[in-house]
Amino acid sequence: MRSSRRQMLLATVLGWGAALLLFFPIFWMVLTSFKSEIAAIATPPQFLFAPTLESYAEVQERADYLHFALNSVLISVGGTLLALAFAIPAAYAMAFHPTARTRSTLLWMLSTKMLPPVGVLVPIYLLFRSLGILDTRSGLVVIYALMNLPIVVWMLFTFFKEVPGEILEAGRMDGARTGSEFWHLLLPLSVPGIASTALLSLILCWNEAFWSLNLTTSEAAPLTTFIASFSSPQGLFFAKLSAASTIAVAPILVFGWLSQRQLVRGLTFGAVK
Amino acid sequence: MSFTTLDQGAEVTAAPPGARRRSAFPLLAPSVSVLLLWMIVPLAMTLWFSFQRYNLLNPEVSGFAGLENYEFLVTDPDFWASLTNTLILVGSVLVITVGFGTLLAVLFDQPFPGQGVARVLAISPFFVMPTVSALVWKNLMMHPIYGVLGSLARAVGMEPVDWFAEYPLLAVIVIVAWQWLPFALLILLTAVQSLDHEQKEAARMDGAGPVAQFVFITLPHLGRAISVVVMIETIFLLTVFAEIFVTTSGGPGNATTNLAFLIYARALLQFDVGGGSAGGVVAILLANVVAFFLVRSIARRLEV
Amino acid sequence: MATLQLRNLRKSYLAHEVIKGVDLEVADREFVVFVGPSGCGKSTLLRMIAGLEEITSGDLLIDGQRVNEVGPADRGLAMVFQSYALYPHMTVRDNMGFALRMAGVPKPERARKVAEAARILQLEPYLDRRPKELSGGQRQRVAIGRAIVRNPRIFLFDEPLSNLDAALRGQMRIELARLHEDLQATMIYVTHDQVEAMTLADKIVVLQAGRVEQVGSPLELYHHPANLFVAGFIGSPRMNLLEARVLGADGAGVMLEAAGARLTVPAGGASRPGAAVTLGIRPEALRPDPAGAFAGEVRLVERLGGLTLLHVTLVGGEAVVVQIEGSDPTPAHAPVRLGVEGAACHVFDAEGQALPALGRHPLAA
């Protein structure tokens, strides 16, 4: 049993080593956010220092954090719900009423995701301008829903596929029509899958930084825009940058940690049978 | 630019036992049509602009340009550099994330104290928005004077590296790989955990050591999962933008300009909508070429 | 009253025909078992009756009404699935009441019927549990309960016991037989297990490759198999089959030569002298007999206590199994002679069809 103990020790060292290494930039960011600007650029870097909240105060003074955070929440949730509304029926149709074209349709949907947004940025920008929805939350909600729709459809499809066919057949023997089959059987059975899909969609929306940078300026700007404003000259103010970054990331990070079990279980895209 | 004709050769999907004959197209139609719109309308507009002289600043410049924009594009060294950069970026990040992702997945499959917490820490970068991770890496980590890496280098008596000046593309690759490694880890870990332990035990009885077990049992089992990781990551990596926007703005020179950034620079920094659109059309073509091969080689391994 | 008629029922997937014309009559309160090797179409046939698979052609009649186009829920049937297909997110109570809920039955009546079914199946203590908190046997009972609650015209069972261990399977088999008697219902049951078929059925339907090979009572199939397939499929250990040659025929039956022995089998039908046929002998019809017709050597002895199985290689090289009641002393590797009653033998012609026996077994009339 010596070798197994040694193996355990090795796994502990390597596992924790890798985890700490990967997490270090985040840890350092949070640490720096509590430093004064002077301490933030001290060389060698300081691990021990007198913590201060002054950077957070300054960040809040410069830009109204809550405004951006609220936009992020509303746009992410809105985009996710809209995507689910379109995707659930589509995934249901493909999983339970497959035709010869189902496979092609699914792959086609995914291939739309490969279009670089920049390729269509100009027309979308001009379209938004003429529709008067530049810098509005609803504009971004629509974009995000469309952006994530293929991935959401695919994930839901793989979850629906896992629902045992016999259970739905039993439902049909029991007299469930398409509607009640969906509400009473399929939906409750795939709650974990839908949750995990929504989770991924929320994360992708929250972190999306192309459309938000290009289509919003202030009114509807989410946290990605908020943080980008700290990028250029002010970037050298490490503590403020860290403070802004920390509050931009914190909500989704905590949310991700809390739901990571769900995510770990769900994020397979049908890769695990 | 659709792929509906892509795998006509694929076998007819057999209806599962629960399938009803009746078509469910009405349920599918909304998604298909909005995606089609989302694809066709901007695509048509992009295509149209790419044949126009169109500058947002200079209304004098207008009219049909023919292939002028394309000619300008393909003779532009920046364009070819951006194409190369795009491919290098996608390729390197895929190799790094799949390689380390597999190793980490096997590692996190072993029981060790605090494994749950370690796993949470390891997947955290996935939740960090690209703009933040780019800023944190650029300033807090890779800054030649104040960055942690520079301090580390000095501590061991080496000259600190000015990452974004000396190895700009590598720096971007590191940042993007850091963001996507957790994603690969998440999927591969689920796949590793689904491996039947009796298979590994049988291999051990057959005299396979840990390495042989990994190569002959674990790795083949991960085939599907790796396919999925490659597919999804490619989708996102082809369109990397924020990391470059925030850190290097494509520079120095064109060292970190990928296709996505090039189009952005042309259209919205130089206000040359025609030229930018031509780049957009090329990007779409590239995406389709990649998609074609990717979907061909990978999707057939998936039970779709 | 619930009768079922199948008239030339067919099913094809694309160009591939899986059910190739099945005719069958199921009488009221009859327990009919479909058996056959895997892939023979027995489950497909059941699912066609259930309405889960479309019928390509032919007629399906329940109580004389054609129901081809009627949806599964409206045929008045209930089905117990192989995987039980319990709704994992519902309690036992909700699982059993789901069909009634779908049918819009008011709550008090629903509760009464569920309680009644739970009482019959002794599921009362488990009504508020979820399927995953139940043992395999309990899940099985819930699945049956779900069927009972609907008070269906016909019960359908798709290999319901195949996920249970051997002991539980034996117990559930008895419970099912009791249930059939209590409910006085028509039941159709699919299995590949011939013990289930023999013990439960009033009528067995043997299927192979989408066709009915034979329909009859268990003992009819056992004692008078219509062809080689049924002869080989029903009975364990399997019927011994020996190559044989016809020597002649008279009023007493057919005279054969097989494995160096001559015997007369009381079977009719036209058989030319010299024709090649197959002689079938059930293992229990053979017995060690110093004056027996067949000579051979014991290769292996399986002693099961109550039974002894001798594996014997005959002079010609063909192997037979002999089943003897009790513990037989014959050692392995001993030379042995085997005797057989001609009346216990079966003869199959070159096409595999049985020559008609001149006398019927008394229990298989």
Automatic annotation (TrEMBL), chain A:
Residues 69-259 form the ABC transmembrane type-1 domain. Keywords: Cell membrane, Membrane, Transmembrane, Transmembrane helix, Transport. GO terms for biological process: transmembrane transport. Gene3D superfamilies: MetI-like. The keyword Cell cycle does not apply. InterPro entries: BP-dep_ABC_trans_perm, MetI-like, MetI-like_sf. Its main location: membrane. GO terms for cellular component: plasma membrane. It is found in: Cell membrane. The chain crosses the membrane at residues 66-94, 106-128, 140-160, 181-204, 237-258. It is a multi-pass membrane protein. The keyword Cell membrane applies. Pfam families: BPD_transp_1. Belongs to the binding-protein-dependent transport system permease family. This is Carbohydrate ABC transporter permease. The lineage of its organism: Bacteria, Pseudomonadati, Pseudomonadota, Alphaproteobacteria, Acetobacterales.
From TrEMBL, chain B:
It is found in: Cell membrane. Residues 83-294 form the ABC transmembrane type-1 domain. It comes from the Bacteria. Pfam families: BPD_transp_1. The chain crosses the membrane at residues 27-51, 87-108, 120-137, 167-192, 225-247, 267-295. GO terms for cellular component: plasma membrane. Its main location: membrane. Keywords: Cell membrane, Membrane, Transmembrane, Transmembrane helix, Transport. SUPFAM superfamilies: MetI-like. It is a multi-pass membrane protein. InterPro entries: MetI-like, MetI-like_sf. Belongs to the binding-protein-dependent transport system permease family. This is Sugar ABC transporter permease.
From TrEMBL, chain C:
SUPFAM superfamilies: MOP-like (SSF50331), P-loop containing nucleoside triphosphate hydrolases (SSF52540). Pfam families: ABC_tran, OB_MalK. GO terms for cellular component: ATP-binding cassette (ABC) transporter complex, substrate-binding subunit-containing; maltose transport complex. Gene3D superfamilies: 2.40.50.100, Nucleic acid-binding proteins, P-loop containing nucleotide triphosphate hydrolases. InterPro entries: AAA+_ATPase, ABC_transporter-like_ATP-bd, ABC_transporter-like_CS, ABC_transpr_MalK-like, ABC_transpr_MalK/UgpC-like, Mo/tungstate-bd_C_term_dom, NA-bd_OB-fold, OB_MalK-like. One of its GO terms (molecular function) is ABC-type maltose transporter activity. SMART domains: AAA. It comes from Dankookia rubra. NCBIfam families: PRK11650.1. The keyword Nucleotide-binding applies. Residues 4-234 form the ABC transporter domain. It comes from the Bacteria. This is sn-glycerol-3-phosphate ABC transporter ATP-binding protein UgpC. Belongs to the ABC transporter superfamily. The gene is ugpC. Keywords: ATP-binding, Cell inner membrane, Cell membrane, Membrane, Nucleotide-binding, Transport.
